[in-house]
Design goal:
Length: 221
């Protein structure tokens, strides 16, 4: 690909903007990054008023919008919608990446026992189901423990990033007997620096893994 590829990232939370920008700066600085925000997604998932089919249609529309804007690749940064994204991306002419699939691949190379730490509770079951499904494809049996850090997202939304990071680091420090710890949302990547020294196992975050995977898919296709 001669020209710098145009990559669209779809966000459900404003807090994922900075980690994504940093991941592209570190892992793929030549990409032309375009951010698309739909902050109704997280509220609507939490409300329970929308069916999975309705979310599938919404994600299909988001993908079509990115394609109409000249996207060479699309990355979703909203981790609670794996099933809807999987359905919506079928048959797309450019790579469309779910938030956590690259990180999950890394984790499965590390073992079979994982802790998923989240500040948005629906992300836990979304990530758990993805890990179990991918493990099944590989013929592996896994155990996945979910940890919800209840006050961290509120702290981040209130502008207290230090408290957000400290709460996540404390939750990570209380874990034991796992092969990898996965931070479930893009917005949590900022807490990695505080969490890694206190983690009982390798700690993984989505953004860098996702950017590296998407780069390989776009550049090599």
């Amino acid at each position: 690909m001669g020209e710098a590829p145009r990559i669209f990232v779809v966000h459900a939370l404003a807090a994922s903007l900075a980690p994504v920008a940093q991941a592209f700066a570190d892992g793929w600085p030549k990409a032309k990054l375009c951010n698309l925000m739909d902050d109704a997604l997280s509220r609507d998932r939490r409300s329970g008023h929308f069916s999975e089919e309705e979310f599938q249609h919404r994600f299909a529309d988001l993908i079509q919008y990115c394609l109409a804007c000249g996207a060479d690749g699309v990355l979703f940064a909203c981790s609670a919608f794996s099933g809807a994204i999987e359905s919506a991306r079928r048959g797309t002419p450019v790579p469309v990446l779910k938030p956590d699939e690259a990180m999950i691949g890394q984790a499965l190379e590390m073992g079979h026992s994982f802790a998923v730490v989240a500040t948005y509770e629906p992300s836990i079951e979304s990530l758990r189901s993805q890990i179990e499904a991918e493990a099944g494809n590989c013929g592996k049996t896994v155990s996945v423990r979910g940890v919800f850090v209840e006050d961290a997202m509120r702290a981040l939304n209130d502008g207290d990033g230090a408290r957000h990071d400290a709460l996540i680091a404390r939750a990570v420090s209380e874990l034991s007997e796992v092969d990898a710890v996965l931070l479930a949302q893009f917005s949590m990547a900022r807490a990695a620096a505080a969490s890694v020294p206190r983690s009982p196992a390798p700690l993984l975050t989505s953004p860098l893994s996702a950017v590296a995977r998407l780069r390989s898919l776009v550049v090599d296709r």
